[in-house]
Amino acid sequence: MHVKKNHGINFRVICKWMRMAGVDHIHAGTVVGKLEGDPLMVKGFYNTLLDVKTEINLPQGLFFAQDWASLRKCLPVASGGIHCGQMHMLINYLGDDVVLQFGGGTIGHPDGIQAGATANRVALEAMVLARNEGRDYLAEGPAILQSAAKTCGPLQTALDLWKGISFNYSSTDTADFAETPTANV
Amino acid sequence: MRLTQGAFSYLPDLTDEQIKKQVQYCIKKGWAINIEWTDDPHPRNIYWELWGLPLFDVKDPATVMFEIQECRKANTTGYIKVQAFDASKGCESCVHSFIIQRPKTEPGFYMQRTESEGRFQRYSIQSYAVQARPAGLACTA
Question: What's the pTM?
Answer without folding.
Answer: 0.89
